[in-house]
Amino acid sequence: MKSSERKKDLKAKAPAELQKELMDLLSVQFKLRMQKATQQLTNTSQIRRTRRDIARVRTLQSQAAKPQTGAKA
User: Fold this and answer.
1) Which of 6, 8, 29, 40 would bridge 35 by S-S if both were Cys, CB 3.0 to 4.6 A apart?
2) What is the C-alpha to C-alpha distance for residues 57 and 25, in angstroms, rounded to an integer?
3) What's the confidence (pLDDT) of residue 70?
4) 67 phi and psi angles, rounded to 5 deg
5) Does residue 15 contact residue 64 with C-beta atoms inside 8 Å?
6) What does 13-49 look like in DSSP terms, one character per residue?
7) What percent of the chain shows pLDDT beyond 90?
8) Neighbouring C-alpha atoms within 13 Å toward the C-beta of 15
């Protein structure tokens, strides 16, 4: 999945779904780190991709938490 498709997919999710997605991604990241430590990980780019997906989800969560301000008149 391309990153632009991933962004659109994440923006369409509700806050509860974003929280679940974040927990899933953190679990995947932990498993990847353990595989790397035991030298079982063959595709190391998965770590970077997962880390960036976590950042995307956290960014969307923080944007949703901030009050939306309108344009000044």
Assistant:
1) 40
2) 9
3) 65
4) -70, 135
5) yes
6) S-HHHHHHHHHHHHHHHHHHHHHHHTT--S-THHHHH
7) 63
8) 6
Distance separating alpha carbons of residues 41 and 11, to the nearest angstrom? 30
Cβ-based neighbour number of residue 25 at 10 Å: 19
Contacts of 33 (CB under 8 A, 6+ apart): 47
* Among the listed residues 59, 54, 49, the one whose alpha carbon sits nearest the alpha carbon of residue 3: 49
| pLDDT tens sequence across 34-60 | 999 999 999 999 999 999 999 999 999
What's the token pair of residue 64? 């949703």
Q: Where exactly are the structural domains of the chain?
A: 16-65
Alpha-carbon distance of 28 to 26, in angstroms, equals 5
